[in-house]
Write a structure and sequence with these properties.
- There is one protein chain.
- The two termini are 21 Å apart.
- This protein is an alpha/beta fold and 265 residues long.
- The chain contains 6 helices and 10 strands; from the N terminus they run βαβαββααβββαβαββ.
- The relative contact order is 0.20.
- The strands form 2 sheets. A 7-stranded mixed sheet has the order 3-2-5-8-9-1-10. It has a 3-stranded antiparallel sheet with strand order 4-7-6.
């Protein structure tokens, strides 16, 4: 990325001209974090999200120049959440990522750690937590190198919805989610796990997200939207969004014709 981010804060924000430039910026961010993590630890541990917004970003990862910049055998993929549907179901987040890029790059099968949502919320959450603990090999909170998230029109992120028990969980890594606001049973990483990541990248696109983005970034999240509660303990959260999503933001500083920086709240 060419435009500078404001530093000295755990929250960084960047406005991109449109959805396409936002997707390229996300791919550049991904490669940069891969390079840092691979150099430091010899591996890169990522948790992905579903939804429509990352579709183009995912497809870019399987294309030049991004695909050649990553040694995929060093990269491990987890998921921030999953719907409890079969793995070939159209609403399955694993299938979404697999179709978009995982099936097109040289990721070893053993590096893909999906949530087995087809087993139902309770069992899938227990099994996924065990998978994470076994992989990281520590009873402490796992530290993902990068977790990619979105923000819903209702302010949810991953499958953390306002008013659900998973928001208040302090010891578990993964929780089943079933409530009136959730159409399907789901499994989600807990807020504690998200807040121990080294890097959080939010991707937000479209005018329908403008109100939530404004309330989180400029109003101080008075409604306590789950997306606004993602505040890493030691890491950094970066908000990457397009012009439509930023339409209600006021504190703008334009940097160049490709990217525009909004100062950290």
């Amino acid at each position: 990325m060419e435009a500078a981010l404001r530093t000295g804060s755990r929250t960084q924000v960047r406005l991109c001209t449109n959805y396409e430039t936002m997707s390229h910026a996300a791919a550049e961010f991904f490669v940069s974090k891969y390079q840092n993590s691979a150099a430091l630890s010899g591996r890169f541990i990522v948790a992905l999200s579903g939804g429509v917004t990352p579709r183009r970003f995912f497809s870019l990862l399987a294309s030049s120049p991004y695909v050649e910049a990553i040694q995929w055998s060093l990269t491990h993929f987890f998921w921030a959440d999953e719907r409890c549907v079969p793995k070939d179901h159209i609403e399955n987040n694993f299938k979404f990522a697999k179709d978009a890029f995982l099936s097109k790059v040289a990721v070893p099968r053993e590096n893909i750690h999906r949530i087995n949502g087809e087993n139902g919320p309770e069992r899938a959450a227990r099994d996924y937590e065990q998978t994470i603990r076994s992989f990281f090999g520590t009873p402490a909170m796992p530290v993902f190198d990068l977790i990619i998230l979105g923000a819903g029109e209702d302010g949810h992120t991953a499958s953390l919805f306002t008013g659900t028990a998973a928001l208040h969980e302090r010891t578990r890594l993964a929780m089943p989610v079933s409530s009136g606001s959730v159409h399907l049973g789901r499994v989600t990483l807990t807020l504690q796990v998200l807040n121990h990541a080294e890097q959080i990248l939010f991707l937000v696109s479209g005018r329908s997200k403008a109100k939530v983005l404004h309330e989180i970034l400029e109003d101080g999240n008075p409604k306590e939207f789950p997306a606004g509660l993602v505040q890493p303990v030691h890491g950094t959260v970066t908000w990457l969004f397009d012009r439509e999503a930023s339409s209600l933001l006021i504190n703008r500083t334009y940097m160049n014709d490709r990217y525009e920086t909004i100062f950290s709240p």
